[in-house]
Amino acid sequence: MKKLSIQMDGLKVKKFLLTKSVLIVLVLFAAVMGGIFPEFLSFSNITNILQDISMYGVAACGMTILIIGGDFDLSASSQYAWAMIFCISMIEYVGVYAAMLLTLASGLILGLINGLIVTKLNINSFTATLGMQLAIKGLCLTYTSGQLINTQNEFMATLGNAKMFGFSSLTYIYLLVIVAVSLLLYRTRFGRNIYAVGGNIQVAKFAGINTTFTKIAGFGIMGILCAIAGMMFVAQMRAGSVLYGTDLTMSCVAATVIGGTSLSGGTGNVAKTFMGMLLINVLYKALIFLGLSSYIQDMTKGIVVIAVVVFDFFTSSLGRNRKKLTA
């Protein structure tokens, strides 16, 4: 019994360190960088970091929903680019407000197509969304002939440049999405169903949950959030291209898992994904402050993704060991 107690105490310490690891690393890393470069912790740099993570962060909220439900979406980067291109194109014909509504609708449609392929054709989400990634990218390239497109719409310019208390309007949009998705996950039947489906889809079916609808709805929400993220980029840059956001998918997956959402599904929340996204961006900012080349930054991104997979495996193993000890 004493040995079992020691093992349990050790696992509790490990669990505490793992659950708080993102915050601990973030604080320590920021403190070190602040000591080396005092401007790293300046208000302007902090607001810039929060603005930088806003667009990817919105898409990461959708990725968190999918991963909790046991799926993920490799086509997120292409959906993001499509939203930029489609929104800019529609502004010219129907005006900015109708263009934004149509862009949301197109994002929903793309997401629902992914969901239908996964559920109705019984194709795993990796294969289905990989195919959609290539298809949407091809559509974007065909529509734009591979060229950058832009808009000078005043509303988009105002939205992208607007600030309140020193923080960008895009940061506030991201925070609103975090709150909305959190309420969706914790305060609705759909949210409870997502956790149940990700935890064990067979048990969810036996419990009477419509797993097909739940999965399709999850992909639909992902499509909408990618569309919002794309329009946020247009507001900031007034431009769109298939070359923008090529690393969005992996950044979203990395931030989600670093935040504690297991790739095996059933656990996680968007508030912790926010911490994961913040940690990744702080790391990239640090590389820029250190004057490292873009090639080193790309290599670091790859290392981060590998580390995330190892991290997820380790935390999943810890969970299994705890269940064995308590059984």
What do you see in this structure?
The chain has 327 residues and is mainly alpha-helical. Helix content is 79%, strand content 2%. It has a single domain, classed as ABC transporter involved in vitamin B12 uptake, BtuC. The strands form 2 sheets. The chain has a two-stranded antiparallel ribbon. Helix 5 runs antiparallel to helix 6 (125-144). The longest helix is centred in the C-terminal third of the chain and has 33 residues, at 294-326. The two termini are 14 Å apart.
Identify the notable features of this structure and list them briefly.
single chain; 327 residues; mainly alpha; two-stranded antiparallel sheet; 4 strands
What is this entry, summarized?
This protein has helices spanning 2-19, 21-36, 43-68, 76-94, 96-120, 125-144, 154-161, 169-187, 189-199, 201-206, 211-237, 248-258, 270-289, 294-326, and strands spanning 149-150, 163-164, 167-168, 239-240.
Topology:
Layout: H1 2-19, H2 21-36, H3 43-68, H4 76-94, H5 96-120, H6 125-144, E1 149-150, H7 154-161, E2 163-164, E3 167-168, H8 169-187, H9 189-199, H10 201-206, H11 211-237, E4 239-240, H12 248-258, H13 270-289, H14 294-326
Antiparallel strand pairs: 1-4, 2-3
